TrEMBL record:
Ion transport found in the keyword field: no
Family from the record: Belongs to the UPF0702 family.
One GO CC term on file: plasma membrane
Main location: membrane
Source organism of the structure: Sporolactobacillus nakayamae
YetF C-terminal domain ranges (all copies): 97-155
Protein name: Uncharacterized membrane protein YcaP, DUF421 family
Amino acid sequence: MGTSVIRVLCLTALVIFGFRNMLSMKLSEQSGIDLLLVISAAELTAASVIYPEKPLLPILAPLLILILVYQSRLWFYRFTANWSIHEHLIQYLKKKSDNPIYTNYEPPRVGLSLIENGKVRCDNLKQIGKTQLWLRQELRKFGYRNIRQVNYLTMDTLGNFYMDLNEYMRKD
């Protein structure tokens, strides 16, 4: 009984220490290989507790190999991710410095709000050079005659509309 308790404590601490990065991530963020490694490690730990008469070394060696594989995957992923971001940044800066078009580059506004709580945002319409008449015509194209039917409306840089309808005034 004492051997099983000591094995549970030691191997649990080893598994938690070896797979500590995985504990902070959601299950949906983890890859299938990582889950497979953890499940295999848990099975090896359970086998060592179920069979306390068997020696620990034949179970401990594969467990350490699983932890080593998991840690090396993390290290490799971090190395390649940092390298690719670094290379991408260098290429972007080279393009920016070589091309005079990028000197006055301003990132586009994303999701400019045109209607909020059923009311037109005239300042944002003026910013894009459009009028309330234009907005009403665009809404009519979608079948909405009353602006109050639309709770929230945004327009992206490509001219696509994204709207949330007022649930009390939905068109049938």
